Amino acid sequence: MPPLNGRYIDVHAHFTPPSTEDERVRGWQAMLAKGIYFREPHLWSPERTLAYMDASGTAMQMLSNIPAELRRLRASNDYGASLVRRHPSRFGLLAALPTDDPPAAADEATRARDALDADGFAVTTHYNGVHLGDASLDPLWERLDDWAAVVFVHPDARLPPTLDHPAPLYEVAFDTARTVFDMVFRKTFARFRNITFVIAHCGGAFPALTGRLGLLGNESWVPQGVTADDVEAQTSSLYVDTAATAFPHSLLPAVATVGAGRIVYGSDWGAPCTTESTAETNRRSLGECGALTPEQAAAIGGRALDLFPRAARRMADAE
């Protein structure tokens, strides 16, 4: 591992391919229609991102972006790969997979690995109506299991508002828990043990609800039940990141569920709902909130390099 000197490897950072002003305005209007009241259209740039990374002590960001349409998704992966080629020691690529179309997802995974040199993969909890636990995805998981791939799981931020509240505020946490627990019932994590799953936002609501699932998951009224031991074995195999959740309310359930050694750093940089201020407040809280020992908090910053050896080699070459 290259020397980090206290810098961070950020597994949860988003990018947006270049777009026209009209495209950005249409995207902004779509968010307004879902009750997400951003003041202006979102614009991502590598220059602003690198400036933030330098200011915050972020050595590398693992970039992800998951458009809802295959053509745009492939073009986004191509652009993400170009960013890594231009900044190989600062960016990594988690290539998006279209999990509503398993054959297309398998093809894109192969293309991303072989042609784009992707470091890992990014998927949405449910993509165009298909959840990650769907049995149709088993051939994709088999391929990724053979590769011992890293798969970053992000909730669907395109959901409509809940009780007039924008989905990114809290609904994404429950969306994450629903998908994780469905995968537990379907034994996805148990059957594909070579895949390293990283769940966004400290796992959303799933760590806090894992005890309830272990208690009730095998009762007679639960179809296709799951035992407490199986719940613990599957959930404890997951990694979670710290994006927008570096506080005791989220960290303590995560430590109890997956262990401090399976928490990796995430900022959610590049998402329209993340600003320099919120990202920095979250980053500082990681070491100051008291949920982790100083040693545990310090280890989180560089842990992702163990998961992404290609990225580690690029950083070592730059050093």
Description of the molecule:
The structure is a single chain. With 319 residues, this protein is an alpha/beta fold. The chain has a single domain (8-317), classed as Metal-dependent hydrolases (TIM Barrel, Alpha-Beta Barrel), CATH 3.20.20. The chain is 46% helix and 13% strand. It has helices at residues 21-33, 46-56, 70-86, 102-114, 138-147, 167-185, 188-191, 206-216, 228-235, 248-258, 276-288, 294-300, 309-318, and strands at 8-14, 58-64, 91-96, 120-124, 126-127, 130-131, 150-154, 196-199, 239-241, 263-264. The strands form 2 sheets. An 8-stranded parallel β-sheet has the order 1-2-3-4-7-8-9-10. Strands 5-6 form a two-stranded antiparallel sheet. A hairpin with a 2-residue loop joins strand 5 and strand 6. Helix 4 packs parallel to helix 5 (138-147) and helix 6 packs parallel to helix 8 (206-216). The longest helix is centred in the middle third of the chain and has 19 residues, at 167-185. 45% of the residues are buried.
Kindly list the characteristics that best describe this protein.
hydrolase; EC 4.1.1.52; 319 residues; eight-stranded parallel β-sheet; alpha/beta; TIM Barrel; 13% strand; single chain
What order do the helices and strands come in, and which of them pair?
Elements: E1 8-14, H1 21-33, H2 46-56, E2 58-64, H3 70-86, E3 91-96, H4 102-114, E4 120-124, E5 126-127, E6 130-131, H5 138-147, E7 150-154, H6 167-185, H7 188-191, E8 196-199, H8 206-216, H9 228-235, E9 239-241, H10 248-258, E10 263-264, H11 276-288, H12 294-300, H13 309-318
Parallel strand pairs: 1-2, 2-3, 3-4, 4-7, 7-8, 8-9, 9-10
Antiparallel strand pairs: 5-6
Helix pairs in contact: 4-5, 6-8, 8-9
